[in-house]
UniProtKB/TrEMBL annotation:
Catalytic residue list: C13 (for gatase activity)
Organism: Ostreococcus tauri (Marine green alga)
Pfam families from the UniProt entry: Asn_synthase, GATase_7
Protein name according to UniProt: Asparagine synthetase [glutamine-hydrolyzing]
Binding site for ATP: L244, V274
Length: 554
């Protein structure tokens, strides 16, 4: 079952590519691919494009951020008898530096995606290692004899691969575009890999910190300068940008660095938050907005509104993982509001996976355990935090950027001695290492606020209402058959079964590769017992209001 997606106001990009070495689907390919690509139109309502040959096709839905007038895709190069084309989703932040570094010929457009064509022709597949950005792309040429598909280092941008009949390979930004195309199997394209017809999947992202014997030895003195550079690099756009201001530490850090840049450039400082009236996030975001002098926008939702939008969220999120769905619901509302004002926003996503921000790190037995757990949850970012951030913003044609996940920032923080990240009571709370870098520049109630996950800070009790609603949708008789109906990752509660039903409605048979946390939550897979979370959520929600006045339910 698929929904019609009409063009809307502001927008972003999607990729759909078919590699057809035997020309099995040459007839009618363009019509088919344009139809399938349109399922992802919320990712790019500014325009559609197609380019193909006997053995391949590329389709694109565009959100115009760089070179709105001239950067239409696919971008095509004619090189004598050979033709090369690129179809890309995302942003390449260092594209101008790479063009200068390699003395590349004058670009035909102002689009950052064009550098992918230039570098592929100049360096071959190794060019991927040079990229600093968020991306999923396909470059193909010479009627399919030369081809590469790739995904960014952390899976910030999505990409799926489908194995069809007669050797056909599909590549798509979202599952909905290809899940009914007679594929023998569909898989998530792994983060930090590229694929070619000759070599298959090749891991190109191999950071020095991601090995069993690796251990950080540095202090944090180098981190701030690198983070500031990443934040400023990610302001690259030919359209206005905004900030998702949750009221938590991470977005407060980004907002603090961003302020002088926006003042210097003369841009209006727009901030956006979501929550229920009186929630910790709304309370803290108002404080931070007043401190910064932003033009602040709020989306205040009710529990009833959250329940009414569960199906919309699951359709766009393309998962049935319960913790992820709960956190995505408020993000869905936030993106809806934000897209009415800007096309691009910066967020604080990714900080917790670098600085050990989650409350269950309180129970970590040693600094070595902390580092190994950060490696584990970083490896899941592509189908947790990044999936939520991308799909909920793209559902409303909005691009989210994540400076904490700049590869330079990741390396800098992961090179820090994990002892700096261990939690030692009130004097050294979670993310103390990051807080200390901005002490005196962010109001103390925000700077030292207790970490709250996405679904927790927006309201202390709304998840209870959500779970009560879900329980009412599933009878005892139906729930008793859960393992029989869903043998893969069987639901462990009526809430989980309700989400699964909706997922199956749109993505039947696609359940096998959906990521589900071991133990039903992020903390469940840690190498130690935790006293903070269960698969139903955080145990003590009142701690999330620490340091804030006026929070309801605290």
């Amino acid at each position: 079952m698929f929904r019609s997606q009409g063009a809307r106001g502001a927008q972003m990009c999607s990729v759909l590519a078919m590699y057809d070495p035997n020309a099995a689907l040459e007839s009618g390919r363009e019509e088919l691919m344009r139809e399938l690509s349109a399922r992802m139109r919320t990712r790019g309502p500014d325009g559609s494009g197609y380019f193909g040959s006997k053995r391949y096709g590329l389709a694109h839905e565009r959100l115009a951020i760089m070179d709105p007038e001239g950067g239409k895709q696919p971008i095509v190069y004619e090189d004598g008898a050979k033709t090369y084309a690129v179809c890309a989703n995302g942003e390449i932040y260092n594209f101008r530096k790479l063009q200068a570094k390699y003395g590349l010929t004058a670009a035909k457009t102002g689009s950052d995606s064009e550098v992918l064509l230039q570098l592929y022709k100049h360096l071959g597949c190794d060019f991927v290692k040079e990229l600093n950005g968020i991306f999923g792309f396909v470059v193909i040429g010479d009627d399919g004899d030369h081809m590469i598909a790739a995904r960014d280092h952390a899976g910030i941008k999505p990409l799926y691969v489908g194995y069809g009949e007669n050797g056909v390979m599909w590549f798509a930004s979202e599952l909905k575009a290809i899940c009914d195309q007679k594929c023998e199997r569909i898989e998530e394209f792994p983060a930090g890999y590229y694929w070619t017809p000759k070599d298959g999947f090749v891991k190109w992202y191999n950071p020095a910190w991601d090995f069993d014997d690796a251990v950080g030895t540095k202090d944090t003195s180098h981190v701030r300068a690198i983070l500031e550079e990443a934040i400023l690099d990610q302001t690259m756009a030919d359209v206005p940008i905004g900030l998702l201001l949750s009221g938590g530490l991470d977005s407060a850090v980004v907002s603090t660095v961003l302020k002088p840049f926006l003042e210097k450039s003369g841009q209006e400082y727009l901030s956006f938050t979501v929550g229920q009236e009186g929630s910790p996030d709304v309370t803290a975001a108002r404080m931070m907005s007043e401190f910064l002098g932003t033009k602040h926008h709020e989306y205040l939702f009710t529990s009833e509104e959250a329940c009414a939008n569960i199906e919309n969220v699951i359709y766009h999120l393309e998962t049935y993982e319960p913790e992820l769905i709960r956190s995505a619901i408020p993000n869905y509302f936030l993106a809806k509001l934000t897209s009415q004002h800007v096309k691009v926003v910066l967020t604080g996503e990714g900080s917790d996976e670098l600085f050990a921000g989650y409350l269950y790190f309180r129970d970590a037995p040693s600094s070595k355990h902390v580092h190994n757990e950060l490696r584990r949850i970083f490896g899941h970012l592509h189908n947790v935090n990044c999936q939520r951030a991308d799909r909920m913003t793209m559902a409303h044609s909005l691009e989210a950027r994540v400076p904490f996940l700049d590869p330079r920032v990741i390396d800098a923080v992961m090179e820090v001695d994990p002892q700096y990240k261990t939690i030692e009571g009130e004097e050294k709370p979670e993310k103390h290492a990051l807080r200390a870098l901005f002490d005196g520049e962010i109001p103390d109630p925000v700077l030292w606020r207790t970490k709250a996950m996405q679904c927790e800070g927006v309201g202390l009790n709304w998840v209870d209402d959500l779970q009560t609603f879900c329980n009412e949708q599933v009878s005892d008789e139906d729930y008793a058959k859960a393992e029989e109906i869903y043998p893969i990752n069987p639901p462990q509660s009526k809430e989980e079964m309700y989400y699964r039903r909706i997922f199956e409605k749109y993505y039947h048979g696609m359940d096998k590769f959906v990521h589900v946390w071991e133990g039903g939550c992020r903390a469940g897979g840690a190498a130690w017992e935790n006293n903070q979370y269960t698969r139903a959520g955080v145990k003590n929600v009142k701690q999330l209001a620490k340091g804030l006045t006026g929070v309801r339910g605290a």
